[in-house]
Amino acid sequence: MQKEVVARVGDYQIRQCTSDDIEQVIDINSKTLPEHYSDHFYFEILAEFPETFLVAELSGEVVGYIMCRIEYGFSHVRRLGLARKGHIVSVAVREEHRGKGIGGNLVISSEGEMGKKAVTESYLEVRVSNTQAISLYEKLGYKTTGRLEAYYRDGEAALVMAAQVGQ
């Protein structure tokens, strides 16, 4: 499969994920996030939504990723109505590569790919304690639209954050 570059951030490139990248994506997830998914889940997202499953790469090493799905349902941005929306399922960057704009550019790049699929908004869930991520999402135009109590297995609540895409 051709590795199409979606964006560049300094020496890093953001491109669509391939099945060859999944092992590194799983490693990043297991080392950076408390939530883990089955190996099958990553392949399922890749098969169904390859355009919105992106990785950040430096010299052949995957150092970050974003996994998104496209859904249809009630809007998180507008008061009433249905929307075609992108759900950011998971985004992570290896610790030693943080602070270089990779996470933000993964989000922006995924929104660009979602926009090509007629998505009008994007949403995600984030731990209430993850103030660094919340701050990043706010800088990218995301607003808190809800709170899910005991959302995570350890009982921590999540904020639901959403933004318009392609506006």
The rounded Rg comes to 15 Å
Number of strands: 8
The major β-sheet equals: 8 strands, mixed
Give me the strand/helix succession: EEHHEEEHEHEE
Helix proportion of residues, in percent?
25-40%
Strand content: 35-45%
**Structural domain tally:** 1
> Do you know the CATH topology?
Aminopeptidase
Second CATH tier, the architecture: 3-Layer(aba) Sandwich
Alpha-beta classification: alpha+beta
What would you say this structure looks like, in words?
The chain has helices at 22-32, 39-48, 102-115, 131-139, and strands at 5-9, 12-16, 54-58, 61-74, 82-93, 121-127, 143-148, 158-164. It contains four helices and eight strands. It has an eight-stranded mixed beta sheet, sandwiched between helices. The protein has one domain (5-124): Gcn5-related N-acetyltransferase (GNAT) (Aminopeptidase, 3-Layer(aba) Sandwich).
Secondary structure topology:
Blueprint: E1 5-9, E2 12-16, H1 22-32, H2 39-48, E3 54-58, E4 61-74, E5 82-93, H3 102-115, E6 121-127, H4 131-139, E7 143-148, E8 158-164
Parallel strand pairs: 5-6
Antiparallel strand pairs: 1-2, 2-3, 3-4, 4-5, 6-8, 7-8
Descriptive terms for the model:
single chain; alpha+beta; 167 residues; 37% strand; 8 strands; 4 helices
Short description:
The chain is of the alpha+beta class. The protein has helices spanning about 20-30, 40-50, 100-115, 130-140; strands spanning about 5-10, 10-15, 55-60, 60-75, 80-95, 120-125, 145-150, 160-165.
